[in-house]
Amino acid sequence: MNQAAQIIIGGLLEGSVFAVVGLGFALVFRVTDVINLSQGAFCVLGALSAYTFEETLRWPVPLAIAGAVLVTVAYATALGAVTFVPALSRLSHSSMLMLTAGILTLTTGGMLVLWGGDPYSLPPLSGERPVELWGIHITTQGFWIAGTTLVIVLGFWFLFTRTILGKALQACAENPMAARLMGIDVPRMALLSFALAATIASLGGIMIAPIASLQFDSGNYFTISGFISVALGGMGSFIGAVSGGLLLGTAEQVAAGYISSLFSDAFALALLLATLLWRPRGLFTLGRSRRIDVRDDVLFYQAIVRLNGRGAVLCGVAAVAVLMALPLVVSDALLGSLVITGILFIGVLGLDVLMGYAGQVGLCQGAFMAIGGYVAGILSTTYGWPPLAGVLFAVLAALLAALVLAFATLRLRGVYLALGTLAFGLVIDSFDAGMMNVTGGPSGLVGIPPFRIGAFAFDSDRSMYYLVAGLIVVLVLALLGGMRSGFGRALMAIRTDQMAAGALGINVVRYKLAAFAISAVLAALAGSLYAFYFRFLSPEMVGTPRSFEMVTMLIIGGEGTLVGSLLGVALLTLLPTMVQSLALYKTFAEGLLLVLAFLCLPEGMFGGIARLVSRAAVRRRGNRLMAEAGAGREVQ
Amino acid sequence: MIAALEASRLSKAFGGLSAVDDVSFIVPQGSLTAVIGPNGAGKTTVFNLVTNLYQADKGEVRLFGERLGNERAWQIAARGVVRTFQTARVFPGMTAFENVLAGAHMHLRSGPAWQMLWLGRVRREEARLAIKAERLLELVGLARFRDAPATDLPIGGQKLLEVLRALMARPRLLLLDEPAAGLNDAETAELASLLRTVRGTGVTVMVVEHNMSLVMGVADQVIVLDAGRLVTAGTPRAIQQDKRVIEAYVGQEEGFPDHAGG
């Protein structure tokens, strides 16, 4: 009984922080309709700054806390003003989701540079001695956490029910255009909500730091937990965020206390998946439903990249020649990185079909890699299957999983689909780590044999390189054939307007499933090759961070172009290996590049290059067309 | 001859508010039928009922003699019934040319797997469709926008593009929802001649339209709706002289287009 109470109180305390992060999510979502994934990073930034002020600079505690909050708010405001707010009017909601993921990565990477990879812990505000209440030990910090949460919740309630400012914030969410016409400065309100959310996040982080040590990447955890809280409770609802947070914290602690700490996430995630599928608007939302537009992503297509035939063929032949000649000129170390680049590119190719062409945001590519890698690896290690059979079986397993996921999420669109796939990815993550006996748990699956076909073993970098390069040539050619024909047009049609696509006789369900299937099959293929190449597989090699990295690679390289993403993959894979001293800056650079790509280069690196090479290849939206038409020139 | 579209006693209410009330009409094959009526008369609702975007509360729809059940949009299109939408719904992220090509989806004989194999017959089929699409673009004067993003076209161009896209689907019954809304005079003239050409090829056309001169110029039959009820149906000449029509529609609205209606 005592133990149960102890666990529940621990869960409620952890849940309070989730609730605070969740409140930030709800606030930004209410004002801008965007799910702001950067939230968790501000928790950590607050806590780490407080550590520096308090422990390194020896400031008095209240001053240190005030200073830390101030630093976080200043940083969030500045960053929000140059990234989040200007992007609001240009990007679709699912692209905004990815942009905030970029801000999260950028901030996390920045903290790695400044504070290093060590965990930090703050001293409790009121000493170490726990208070004993009815035989239950409660840390004094618990009261600080509960108190802070309560004050924040009350503050929110007051702001939104009692003040004009709250009404103005509310109006921005309900109808930005009308709000603008009423004289409300919508961008300023958006920035205000972003900064306010960062403020409370930093407070939450500072309060939890004494009982949970934080490091640069703890933000991912807070973001995911906070987002699960709001998704459980209902996206824009403050009460929902708080109840969702408390529920999640308790569920995690109970699962950790009674089942296994490795599976503590799985339970919460299963809860989330069920909620998304059963009540996408959350458990605690009553009556108030948001209007969801039929069309998604209309704003996103600022550029269309099309290469004309002859030039493309020439470039293709040249590219294949370079691909075949590369191993003769590069160093051995670089060849290894090229193999990794190639393997990841296969996975990103699949993602491009799903995201770039079919417009379905998939945040679980890493999970399909995991399914592929673990199934193939386990079959060939534990059960002694020939690697080729293992790969085929792994691809089938991923295909099956993808079809189940696609069927389950058919109703979900845009951001909700992103959340559903993210939840699926996180569930697979926790299985990778949790099923110790089968997958080797967090320390990984060892002893995977090299890939072999018949008697030939691909046990050198060079043989693996040619295997991967050959696969890439075949896959790119096949996908190019499909994407520039009716298949590609059908996918692009359902990308933005499922109703209009259906009216033309396009079977929307079938093509969505096909896109999911292709992306999963290619990811599984990449995952199994990855496992055979390293002869080892661990959860972090194929987890959710990998999913985000692959999305980043795709967007930096250029969506909807198939070959463009190779540039993104190469950039993010080769740069850190070629310049070892840059490894520390890798996360930071990834985030920065993603944010910059969204803001400055919506057609990606490939589109940018295509624009330079041939002026007709990329059409940016704007008045240029009208000018050309006016000049009476035929537009090529 | 079996009618292309036969609606019997259709009714649809939204939360107690009757949008379409006991409406019956026949669209003969090969005809060009216009549906007119003031805003809120239920014109678009009728379109949505015969394409299963809404389920009717009461009544029955027959398409070429076959009863409409709860088919999905793509299954209705497969029966040869293709529609456009009130607001231009071209596909963003695709060029004008690709938008038109997308309309031919149902008539592709090779599936995705064959397309990925780069088979000769796939390429030939694509080339054949490309010629057809280009010809259509030329017909309405949009050829110079061929490779422009469809969403960059002026609104009139986008509406015409949507009609071309529907034509590529080779419909037996073409449903056009206010195709002339947002078109300038030159584009309206293009549309009128396009509609005559289409009817000339034997396609049945049903069009919701506010533009009276367009309707009276090209329609064989005019159906008049008001407040969800059928007022009358007849030839343009008969309609123009019908007192109830003048009261219900022309008298109030002067027949000028208003895009917000439905």
Structural account:
The complex is a heterodimer of chains A (636) and B (262). Chain A is 71% helix and 3% strand. With 636 residues, chain A is mainly α. Chain A folds into two domains: 2-278, ABC transporter involved in vitamin B12 uptake, BtuC, CATH 1.10.3470; 300-620, ABC transporter involved in vitamin B12 uptake, BtuC (Orthogonal Bundle). In chain A, the strands form four sheets. Chain A has a two-stranded antiparallel sheet with strand order 1-2. In chain A, strands 3-8 form a two-stranded antiparallel sheet. Chain A has a two-stranded antiparallel sheet with strand order 4-7. In chain A, strand 1 and strand 2 (136-138) form a beta hairpin. Residues 286-299 and 621-636 of chain A have low confidence and may be disordered. With 262 residues, chain B is of the alpha/beta class. In chain B, strands 6-7-8-3-9-10 form a six-stranded mixed sheet, sandwiched between helices. In chain B, helix 3 runs parallel beside helix 6 (155-168). Mean pLDDT of chain B is 88; it is low at 253-262. The chains are: A mainly alpha (636), B alpha/beta (262). The A-B interface holds A 297-298, 300-301, 304, 306, 477-479, 481-482, 485-487, 489-490, 492-493, 495-497, 499-508, 514, 560, 616, 619, 621-622, 625-626, 629, 634-636 and B 51, 53, 72-74, 76-78, 82-85, 89, 91-95, 98, 101-106, 108, 110-112, 115-118, 122, 126, 143-149, 151-152, 165-166, 169.
